[in-house]
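Action item from last week, closing it out:
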Amino acid sequence: MTRAHVALTESDVSRIVEMAWEDRTAFEAIEAQFGLNESAVVDVMRRHMKPSSFRMWRKRMAGRVTKHLALRSPAVQRHRASHTRQA
């Protein structure tokens, strides 16, 4: 089930777009946090980005295995910014 029928807040959309652009953030992480599957994320990106930016993002994501947990190497870990607290 997706949240496609639920209105997302502006901050939700901003975070989804940010996560979708990150190479190491899998679509499954977006789904766990926001309840949006890959096709719903694509729809959000299409609706909230300029057409040229959306095309650039789709081209970048095409074939990128790090966006799917099942396809990526176990060596690829979640990205942690150097300024955040490391646990």
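Closing note: The two ends are 33 Å apart (CA to CA).
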